[in-house]
Amino acid sequence: MKLKFATKSLGTIAALLVVTAVFSGAILAQDGPETLVVTQANPRGWTAAAPGADTRTGGAVNFVPDSSSPAPGAALQLTTTSATTAKAQYMHATNTLLSDVISLAYHTKQNSASFAGGDASFQVVVNLCGPTSGFTTLVYEPYQNGTVVPSEWQQWDVDAGQFWSSRSVTCGASVVAGGGGAPFYTLSNLQGSFPSAVVIGFGVNIGSNNPSYDVEVDLFKFNNTTYDFEIFSAPTTQDDCFKGGWSTFNPPSGPFKNQGQCVSSTVPQ
Length: 269
What we know:
The N and C termini lie far apart (56 Å). Helices cover 10% and strands 35% of the residues. The chain contains three helices and 16 strands. It folds into two domains: 10-233, Galactose-binding domain-like (Jelly Rolls, Sandwich), CATH 2.60.120; 234-269, no CATH class. Strands 1, 3, 4, 6, 9, 15 and 16 form a seven-stranded mixed sheet that branches. The chain has a seven-stranded antiparallel sheet with strand order 2-5-14-7-8-10-13. Mean pLDDT is 90; it is low at 1-12 and 18-25.
């Protein structure tokens, strides 16, 4: 049984996610599907750093070339050293009713791991009792939902799988901390048991006590948004360059120096 989410520092992460998501406005909703390219230059709200995430000494999050990824070009890489305290985490804040969560998925690849089923876990950070109470993290482990095949990209239908909870929470219904395993819960079960639950974050993780991991993630999906992790990104129209947009791109030739250079790149040669 592999523990992939350490409970230390959860309060810090919860505080940031609540401030970022809950107090930013109304519950989020999306009109239709979209794919966002995420790069180091334009992380689109993702972070590996405290207080939004809990990457620790010995853990690292990088964007790496990978022509075999499901969106060929690059992928997100999470690694840990041989230290059992190493941890790598990449997170994104949100403010979404758990009852509105309809689609969760991602692709992973295990390059190497000290555990045969080792892979990046999919994490849903949630306040089960309402906007600001009942904090826990729901953790989906690929090896608990199928067979991890080393060196192969695999797609995981997370919303149809099983999760364990990082904490015990009671508010009408209850969940019991699994510590890396049973008891397990399904998304539909949790939605029915906790109608006021609010998701305040999501992401991927290699927890402590998982040394010597090298895994990759791509096409991470939360509801109607799919995140494509790439090294390079470029504008598609001139409008993308305005209002500071030029500084968020990372084309193969290197970052733009100003708005004009960005605009010029959209003109057919």
